User: Which sequence fits this backbone?
């Protein structure tokens, strides 16, 4: 059975029919075609599929798609404005904060949720913000540095 | 912060580094931060079908009957794939380089040998439909005795896991059930040693747990070709393996990979491509075979568990004079890459130390566990863990600083290694010295003055040539085989000194063990050590080796065509 | 078969729908239900939801605190009046999970999940069920005894506000802070004139449901909160527990470390 759903994706209105019980991750990738969201566990435990829903981070693989009706969803595909990268994207590149890159979209959204709410995070704030996102490659440190850099410019290692 | 210690070995090096040490952006990092790097699943097809695998719930069982008729009729199911559908249903990964016998089916037909072994494939219009159909399959099993422990598996009477290797060990060179390394006489040396330390080390299997699970999508192309988008780390390996299993020409397959969402060795086994290709051939539609997270953790191949026994004979002054290692690799139910891991392990023993008496037996053992595979230095890291833990214990036993204890025993240029190769271009002592400096680890002056270029000799670690008295120049002792034909000999290796004297201390020669070369008591010509011919002192001068290809094939023995 | 999703504006209607369908489950935040849906678990065929505002209710007037079953961990973290519960809410998942995980969902979470439920147990919470015609209020401990049977829908939990600085919480995990619990300890240790009176201790991941450590509670009664005073409680810390082996830790390990962490929690020597 298909259910209609309407929401905003990176500022654009989207309408689709989804299978009853479909999760938001599959809806975004398979139905809407936003492949920037990645799936890692389909259990809500790895954070790879993190998106923002009305500014708040959510794991899309365990989010029932139809609960997102009318909401504003942000994914990595919407981070850059035309040719201009978001400061987080630039910072991740400069700090080697990605190797295989698979956790990166989720990390970026978790970090954006933090910076949108708290433009002055401490290192502990950053660690809490990404604590729900697993990275198997970098050891997390370059990611933490990148987020702090995006927030503070050149500041690193702030307690 | 990257620091170059260009003062060390300055005379040996051309100081022309153009890339090393310069920050360079990854060529794919822009794709990563914009979410546009293409992983295998980042393609959409309107009529994509989904392949899910029904797996064995038993570690060892005979399949008595399979009734998949209800599943075949279930809503959304397009095809059931059975063992009989697989064109070549027995393979081993390294058959591509003629190493090992085919031993693993893509789909089990009569016996299942580990929990999770694939039995049936179900191709359906959604993953949900495939999973629901799976619950309609009726399989009856006769459970068989199973073995899960490497040493239990080698006892007589143990259940036989893998019919290709009925005694539960991989077969090397057609007749040996393990890899051997023999050098000197450990039994005599243990009797002489002041301290004998023995211990057992155990590693668990380790799951790579990449954030992207294993998967592939096969899409029918024109002219009987298929495009395969895959997560593999080993694109051409997977292509050839898939071609063999599907009895296809390799030019019928177009593999597209490149961005791997975390591999670490866990995406080299070609786990999904052969069956996604077969499914696409049987249905004419694009098919995705994607591991779920539970599948990845439980049935994706792990780094193999290893059990390692290390026995060291140590003198009071800190010299390790004997090392005996017995190592068991848990390959799980099938070979995959463990056969090669065992060769690497054997080649790595006894670690970066000059030890005059070395004895190693390394087994590739089959058990009813998940087949193991590569992971980050497989074959080497675990045995390193065991040997280095053991060296720490040795240091405590002789009351020496653990770093100094190691430095005393480290290879130096000119030392004879247990594999009968002369050590050259050694730098470990210098690494240790710089490490100590950086860590503020105190080293005595004598150790700060040590050099890899001093104190080494053929006899420092080697078996003594009993045909001459001490202090006499060697009569006709050839330089041991240098596989590169001498062209790349390190510039600073001095010819072996006439009188083998250590700078740091005097030591008596160990009493004469039977020289292993004079009357070979070891294996005939095929041997585990990576030399192309026996290095007996009485033998004629070794033939110059040919080129790099010979080196590769020498790891596995003669290259068979 | 496809999943049915049924959404009701009133909680009571949702409760009726739940009891009338075989493989129906109530949807709190979805963190557990959606996993089952993603894995095509045959035990989940119908999802029942409610948009009833009672689910999001937070009441913090004077002595009694009320939390609707749909209140998320993030909502608790945003509520200053509930600061004593913040360490518990913060220990549930990462930021994204906290935006979805609910009080009610935590009450049904199987061990080793369910740390928030253990905290509620230490707070002597009652549970209001929406089922049939009325909202029945029962002690949480009684509810946990029968949560597997029948189809309950929780409307709300309530408990008396603990005296300031008397509620403590520790989660033992290998991966900080979001890892699954090896175990968790929630404790209320009110004291009068330097003597403990009416202590409540509850454990997570030490039994199939959160459990009270009643032997330890009795052993603390009337004692001083110092090393000598708690010694007897530590000796009987594991009484009444039934930990199991799982992928996180063995039962043996859980029993071994329990008194260590209980001591640290009671004496205030736990790492922040």
Assistant:
């Amino acid at each position: 059975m298909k259910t209609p759903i309407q929401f905003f994706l990176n500022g654009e209105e989207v309408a689709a029919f989804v299978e009853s019980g479909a999760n938001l991750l599959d809806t975004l990738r398979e139905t809407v075609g936003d492949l920037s969201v990645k799936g890692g566990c389909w259990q809500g435990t790895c954070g790879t599929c993190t998106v923002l829903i009305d500014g708040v981070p959510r794991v899309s693989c365990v989010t029932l798609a139809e609960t997102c009706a009318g909401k504003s969803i942000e994914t990595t595909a919407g981070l850059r404005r035309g040719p201009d990268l978001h400061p987080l994207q630039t910072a991740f590149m400069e700090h080697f904060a990605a190797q295989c890159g698979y956790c990166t979209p989720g990390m970026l959204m978790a970090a954006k949720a933090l910076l949108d709410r708290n433009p002055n995070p401490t290192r502990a704030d950053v660690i809490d913000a990404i604590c729900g996102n697993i990275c198997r490659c970098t050891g997390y440190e370059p990611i933490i540095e990148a987020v702090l850099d995006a927030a503070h410019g050149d500041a690193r290692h702030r307690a | 912060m990257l620091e170059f210690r260009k003062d060390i070995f300055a005379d040996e090096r051309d100081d022309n580094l153009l890339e090393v040490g310069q920050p360079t952006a990854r060529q794919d990092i822009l794709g990563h931060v914009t979410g546009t790097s293409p992983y295998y699943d980042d393609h959409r097809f309107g009529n994509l079908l989904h392949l899910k695998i029904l797996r064995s719930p038993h570690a060892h069982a005979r399949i008595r009957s399979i009734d998949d008729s209800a599943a075949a009729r279930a809503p959304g199911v397009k095809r059931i794939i059975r063992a009989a559908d697989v064109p070549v249903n027995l393979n081993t990964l390294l058959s591509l380089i003629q190493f090992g016998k085919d031993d693993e089916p893509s789909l089990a037909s009569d016996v299942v040998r580990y929990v999770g072994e694939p039995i049936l494939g179900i191709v359906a219009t959604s993953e949900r439909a495939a999973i629901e159909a799976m619950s309609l399959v009726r399989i009856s099993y006769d459970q068989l005795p199973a073995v899960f422990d490497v040493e239990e598996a080698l006892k007589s009477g143990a259940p036989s896991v893998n019919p290709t290797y009925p005694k539960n060990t991989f077969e090397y060179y057609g007749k040996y059930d393990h890899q051997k390394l023999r050098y000197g006489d450990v039994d005599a040396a243990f009797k002489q040693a002041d301290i004998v330390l023995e211990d057992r080390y155990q590693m668990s299997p380790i799951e790579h747990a990449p954030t992207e699970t294993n998967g592939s999508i096969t899409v029918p192309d024109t002219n009987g070709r298929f495009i395969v988008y895959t997560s593999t780390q080993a694109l051409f390996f997977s292509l050839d393996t898939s071609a063999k299993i599907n009895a296809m020409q390799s030019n019928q397959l177009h593999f597209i990979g490149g961005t791997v969402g975390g591999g670490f060795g866990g995406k080299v086994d070609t786990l999904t491509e052969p069956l996604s290709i077969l499914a696409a051939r049987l249905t004419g539609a694009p098919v995705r075979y994607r591991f779920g997270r539970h599948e990845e953790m439980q049935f994706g191949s792990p780094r193999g568990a290893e059990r390692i026994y290390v026995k060291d004979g140590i003198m009071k002054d800190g010299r390790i004079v004997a090392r005996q290692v017995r190592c068991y690799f848990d390959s799980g139910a099938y070979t995959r890459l463990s056969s090669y891991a065992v060769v690497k392990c054997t080649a790595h023993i006894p670690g970066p130390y000059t030890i005059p008496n070395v004895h190693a037996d390394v087994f590739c053992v089959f058990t009813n566990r998940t087949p193991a595979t590569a992971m980050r230095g497989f074959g080497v890291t675990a045995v390193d863990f065991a040997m280095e833990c053991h060296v720490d214990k040795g240091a405590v036993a002789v009351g020496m600083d653990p770093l100094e204890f190691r430095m005393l025993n480290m290879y130096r240029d000119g030392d004879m290694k247990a594999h009968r190769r002369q050590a050259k271009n050694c730098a470990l002592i210098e690494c240790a010295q710089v490490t100590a400096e950086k860590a503020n680890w105190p080293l005595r002056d004598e150790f700060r003055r040590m050099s890899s270029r001093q104190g080494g000799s053929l006899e420092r670690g080697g078996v003594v040539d009993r045909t001459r008295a001490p202090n006499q120049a060697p009569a006709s002792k050839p330089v041991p085989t240098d596989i590169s034909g001498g062209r790349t000999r390190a510039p600073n290796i001095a010819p072996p000194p006439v009188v083998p004297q250590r700078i740091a201390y005097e030591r008596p020669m160990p009493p004469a063990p039977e020289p292993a070369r004079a009357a070979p008591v070891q294996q005939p010509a095929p041997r585990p050590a990576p030399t192309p011919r026996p290095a007996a002192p009485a033998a004629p001068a070794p033939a110059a080796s040919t080129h790099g290809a010979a080196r590769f094939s020498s790891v596995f023995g003669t290259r068979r065509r | 078969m496809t999943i049915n999703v049924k959404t009701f504006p009133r909680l009571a209607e949702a409760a009726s729908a739940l009891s009338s369908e075989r493989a129906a489950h109530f949807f709190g935040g979805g963190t557990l239900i959606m996993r089952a849906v993603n894995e095509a678990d045959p035990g989940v065929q119908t999802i029942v939801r409610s948009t009833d505002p009672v689910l999001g209710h937070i009441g913090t007037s004077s002595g009694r605190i009320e939390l609707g079953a749909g209140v998320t961990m993030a909502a608790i973290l945003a509520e200053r009046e509930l600061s004593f519960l913040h360490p518990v809410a913060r220990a549930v998942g990462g930021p994204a999970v906290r935006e979805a995980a609910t009080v009610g969902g935590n009450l049904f979470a199987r061990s080793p999940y369910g740390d928030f439920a253990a905290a509620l147990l230490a707070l002597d919470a009652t549970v209001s069920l929406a089922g049939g015609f009325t909202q029945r209020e029962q002690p949480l401990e009684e509810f946990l005894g029968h949560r597997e049977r029948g189809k309950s829908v929780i409307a709300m939990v309530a408990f008396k506000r603990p005296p300031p600085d008397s509620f403590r919480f520790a989660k033992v995990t290998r991966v900080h802070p979001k890892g699954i619990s090896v175990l968790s300890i929630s404790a209320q240790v009110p004291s009068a004139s330097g003597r403990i009176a009416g202590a409540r201790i509850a454990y997570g991941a030490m039994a199939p449901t959160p459990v009270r450590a009643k032997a330890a509670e009795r052993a603390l009664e009337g004692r001083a909160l110092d090393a000598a005073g708690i010694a007897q409680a530590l000796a009987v810390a594991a009484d009444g527990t039934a930990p199991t082996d799982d992928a996180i830790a063995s039962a043996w390990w859980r029993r071994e470390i329990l008194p260590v962490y209980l001591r640290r929690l009671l004496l205030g020597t736990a790492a922040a």
Q: What stands out?
A: The interface with chain B takes residues 1-2, 39-40, 42 of chain C (CB under 8 Å). The longest helix of chain C spans residues 251-267. The mean pLDDT of chain C is 92.
